[in-house]
Each structure stands twice: as C-alpha cells, then as structure tokens.
Design a protein that fits this description.
Layout (H helix, E strand, L loop, with lengths): L10 E5 L5 H11 L6 H6 L2 H11 L3 E6 L2 E12 L6 E10 L8 H15 L4 E3 L7 H9 L28
Parallel strand pairs: 4-5
Antiparallel strand pairs: 1-2, 2-3, 3-4
This protein binds coenzyme A.
Amino acid sequence: MEENEPEEDRIRIREMTIDDFPEVFHIGEEVFTAEYSQSLYRTWDEYEITTLFNSDNELCLVADAGGKIAGFALATTVEKHNSPWKYGYLVWLGVRRDIQKGRVGSRLFTEIKRRMKEHGVRMMIIDTAADNQPAIQFFQKQGFDDVREHLYMSLNLSRKSTKKRGKKS
Ligand SMILES: CC(C)(COP(=O)(O)OP(=O)(O)OC[C@H]1O[C@@H](n2cnc3c(N)ncnc32)[C@H](O)[C@@H]1OP(=O)(O)O)[C@@H](O)C(=O)NCCC(=O)NCCS
C-alpha cells in the first residue's frame, strides 16, 4: 500500500464487527450534532448500533481506511404480513467530517443496495430532516425520488407549563 495514496483510495467496505462499535459511535457523535440536525442528534445513541447489528449484521457496514473507520451505514429490512414487498430501510449513514465528499458515502450506499437486492428487497427507503440539504442531495444523486413530507414534533416534558389556566367558577 502506497504511503501517500489518498485516504479514499485505501478504503475497503466491510461488515461492521463488535470491535468497531466505539469508533462508529464517536463518528456518529461527530456528524449527528445538534447544530447539523436536531432529530439526528436526539436519536443517535449506542443502542442504535447494537440493535441494528443484532437484527441485521449483514446490513451494518463500515468503510475501513487501513484500520481507521471512515464511515458507516446501518440498515435493516422490513417485511409486512399482508404485502409481498420487502423494504430495505437505511437508518443511519455517516461519513467522518474530514473525508466527506470523497465518495465514501456513495461506496457504502452502493454496497448496502447490492446486499439489499440480494436479500430480496424491492424498495429502499430513507428518511432525513427536511433541512438536511447535503443528505437530500446525496440521496437524490443515488436515484431517490418520490419525496414525501414528514413532520417531526417534540414535547419538552421537563418544562413547566406556562399556560394560564382559566378560573373555575
Ligand atoms: C450525507 C453523507 C453520508 C454523504 O457522504 P459523502 O461521502 O460525503 O458523499 P459522496 O462524496 O459520496 O457524495 C456523492 C454525491 O452526494 C452529493 N453530496 C454529498 N455531500 C454533499 C454536500 N455536502 N452538499 C451537497 N451535495 C452533496 C453530491 O451530489 C455528491 O456527488 P458529487 O461529488 O459528484 O457532487 C455525509 O455528508 C454525511 O455523513 N453527512 C452527515 C450525516 C447525514 O446527514 N447522514 C444522512 C442521514 S442519516
């Protein structure tokens, strides 16, 4: 392997192992920040990694750059009793900040798509925040269309209600 070879050329897409969990978790913390996307920030935690790994480890991939993880894709499949369709849900895709726009995301996506097809998936789905323009452009580039709007709401349970109650007569 050449010393001065660009990092993206040394990348190998492989299945995630238990040893990768901490690095994947920290890359997630680095990219799913509150400033970048509130919804991604709030829902990313270590259980996302372990749960998806337990349910579908063949669809949990990392981009390995000579022993250092450059990015990851965590996905699962969904089957419905009353439908012949099998869905492939790409839940998390993250690329280390310093190597973004270097095609790592595309390579992870291509391999996830290939594996999903092999698993009999007929439709792939993703979701992301409406203001996550980089991700929207990325997924459109991969061929996603038929964008459906989806509302994300939150309720802060630790805040005391400031609503004044009407007087009882
Ligand atoms: C979205 C993400 C996974 C893309 O991975 P990447 O390795 O940076 O993307 P690639 O280099 O493979 O880009 C492929 C195409 O996607 C689009 N794209 C990627 N990043 C983009 C950006 N920041 N702005 C606009 N378009 C972008 C471009 O069309 C690009 O093609 P081009 O280079 O020919 O213009 C990465 O930016 C990321 O980790 N973002 C933060 C986490 C996130 O939002 N994940 C998705 C929801 S879970």
